[in-house]
Amino acid sequence: MPESDVPFPERVYEIVARIPSGRATTYGAIARALGNPRGAREVGWALSGVPEGSQLPCHRVVDREGRLSGGWAFGHPEIMAGRLEDEGVPFLEQYRVDLSIAFWDPSVEDDTQQLGLF
DNA sequence: GCCTTGACGGCAA
DNA sequence: GTTGCCGCCAAGG
Q: How many CA atoms lie within 13 A of A75 on its CB side?
């Protein structure tokens, strides 16, 4: 069946699920990968529907500046930041990841970008 | 059917 | 580099 039949939230989850450990991506990048460049807010809305305890690594999704805009959804940004830091994600500030190194583009399937090379 | 809210993004001042 | 405002898309009151 056409992918267009798949509900938007599920397409978001599918992308988020394949974000490599130690990397991060943005709401806008995911939206663009789904062919909806203006749907960044919709991506955020989709993730807000993710129940606690889900295996979905939604903590690896940040805004375009690398800030933990969704940190409070985990109860406290420290939880999200600690988990990212534990995976080796570089931070510019306490609540801001270095996307120049850790950014993972969902529209690229090339495995070399998952090697953590820079 | 109208208005407000929200885990965003882009641009102007 | 910051702050503010507007635009987008969906959901909920």
A: 6
- Burial of A66 by CB count in 10 Å (0-12 exposed, 13-18 middle, 19+ buried)? buried
| A7 SS3 class | coil
What does pLDDT average to over chain A? 90
Determine the distance between A55 (CA) and C10 (C1') in angstroms.
Answer: 25
A70 touches strand B (CB under 7 A): yes
Report CA(A59)–C1'(C11) in Å, whole number.
23
Closest nucleotide to A93: CA versus each C1': C1
Catalytic residues of A: 58
The model carries a pTM of 0.90
Query: Residue A116: what pLDDT?
Result: 54
User: Measured from the CB, is A33 under 7 Å from any atom of strand B?
Assistant: no
CATH topology of domain A3-106: Arc Repressor Mutant, subunit A (1.10.10)
Please write the tens of the pLDDT for every residue from A58-116.
999 999 999 999 999 999 999 999 999 999 999 999 999 999 999 999 988 766 665 55
- Segments making up each domain of chain A, as ranges: 3-106
